UniProtKB/TrEMBL annotation:
This is DUF4386 domain-containing protein. The chain crosses the membrane at residues 40-65, 77-99, 119-143, 152-170, 176-197. The keyword Transmembrane helix applies. It comes from the Bacteria. Keywords: Membrane, Transmembrane, Transmembrane helix. The keyword Transmembrane applies. It comes from Sinomonas terrae.
């Protein structure tokens, strides 16, 4: 079930995120304005996703492996390495929330900016972006070629990548593209989860 639970947890975190791709001042202000429950749920979603998403992409790779071994290994490795930095990025989200809870919160904005853009966090961010975006393209293709999922499911996974990129290249950076990409990943993962359950049932029977 991690195949679907991972993307769902990430969607929960993403949809409730109080500030997306923002600087320290906007991030801290967004967290301060967000109800406590929303902040907690968005962090819980990202924490759960940081554990479940690497397992999720491995599940997609395993499904296609019998017929497309090399593509599955490449896609799986890209996905695992791409999603592992999510734990560090989630810690950054938690840092923004912790700063927002302090009475002198806005004095920490420059510290947040310095931390989020230093060499370590930049490496995490680049690996995260390149790895998980490339993984869904590769895995969508190999799943379709292996006929492990319907073609629409494979295309949903593939299209999640350009839709995500549209968030950064379309003027105004509309966040709705990111939300659509999350939905595409969840929808595209559902048939894969069903196929894995059927395979497990067949093998155990």
């Amino acid at each position: 079930m991690s195949v679907v639970a991972g993307p769902v947890a990430f969607a929960v975190g993403g949809l409730l995120e109080p500030a997306v791709h923002a600087n320290g001042e906007a991030t801290i202000a967004g967290n301060a304005a967000e109800p406590a429950l929303g902040n907690v749920l968005h962090l819980v979603g990202f924490v759960a996703a940081s554990f479940l998403l690497p397992v999720s992409v491995v599940g997609l790779a395993v499904l296609a492996y019998p017929k497309r071994p090399w593509g599955s290994v490449i896609g799986g490795l890209l996905g695992v390495f791409g999603w592992l930095p999510l734990a560090a990025l989630t810690a950054l989200e938690d840092l923004g929330y912790a700063m927002a809870l302090r009475p002198e919160r806005m004095t920490y904005a420059s510290l947040y900016d310095a931390f989020s853009s230093d060499a370590v966090m930049s490496v995490f961010l680049v690996v995260y972006i390149v790895g998980h975006l490339a993984a869904y393209v590769v895995l969508g293709i190999v799943l379709m070629r292996a006929r492990a999922v319907p073609r629409w499911a494979g295309w949903a996974l593939i299209l999640s990548t350009p839709v995500t990129l549209a968030t950064f290249v379309v003027p105004g950076k509309p966040l709705v593209f990111g939300d659509v990409a999350l939905v595409l990943i969840v929808v595209g993962s559902l048939p894969a989860a069903r196929a894995l359950i059927r395979r497990r049932t067949t093998e155990s029977g």
